[in-house]
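Support request from a user on the community tier.

User writes: "When I paste my structure tokens into the form, the page sometimes reloads and wipes my input. The last time it worked, I copied everything first. Here is what I submitted, just in case something in the input itself triggers the reload:"
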């Protein structure tokens, strides 16, 4: 079994593509069959070549396109096949929101949705209640004693975010009972 290198395959494909009347016994095809191949690489498309010769020729022709020609090909395929432009990947900018149509006069204005998740912020505390609040923050947030002390001393500071209203009210009552001030936003 003979193996081929990627440049050798490209050379053979270009030679065959340039002269479509090449017969199987032509010197170009024979010389292409004797070239050695480097180890298979992930990007090497010959390892997973299609058994359909029509597809193989299309792939060979596409692989020879320049970057600008490839961009034109993609845009032409999108228009012909009616494929919408969609951002892909993690680096794409978020799509701009379409402007909302003006509300009709017959419909009543929609009610403002009630906020369900809140952010809790430790605003201040009494100096005499500092050790109690440090212990409660340590237990509530799972911090070490040193981190809890630094947290409390750096007030005002956000404690938790995305907290349901009932849980937030319980936390506020607990800290208020100890001598601290927590704001739920």
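"...and here is what came back when it finally went through:"
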């Amino acid at each position: 079994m003979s193996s081929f290198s990627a440049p050798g395959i490209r050379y053979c494909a270009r030679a065959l593509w340039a002269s479509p009347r090449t017969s199987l016994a032509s010197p170009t095809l024979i010389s292409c069959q004797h070239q050695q191949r480097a180890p298979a690489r992930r990007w090497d498309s010959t390892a997973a070549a299609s058994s359909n010769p029509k597809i193989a020729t299309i792939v060979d022709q596409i692989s020879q396109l320049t970057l600008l020609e490839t961009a034109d090909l993609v845009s032409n395929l999108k228009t012909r096949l009616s494929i919408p432009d969609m951002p892909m990947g993690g680096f794409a900018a978020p799509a701009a929101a379409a402007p909302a149509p003006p509300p009709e006069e017959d419909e009543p204005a929609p009610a403002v949705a009630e906020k369900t998740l809140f952010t809790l912020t430790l605003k201040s505390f009494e100096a005499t209640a500092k050790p109690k609040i440090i212990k409660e923050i340590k237990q509530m947030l799972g911090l070490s004693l040193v981190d809890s002390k630094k947290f409390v001393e750096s007030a005002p500071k956000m404690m938790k975010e995305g907290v349901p209203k009932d849980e937030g009210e319980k936390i506020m009552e607990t800290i208020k009972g100890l001598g601290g001030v927590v704001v739920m936003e």
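Agent notes: The reload is a front-end session timeout and is unrelated to the input. Residues 22-26 have pLDDT under 50 and may be disordered. Strands lie at 117-125, 157-164, 180-184. Escalated to web team.
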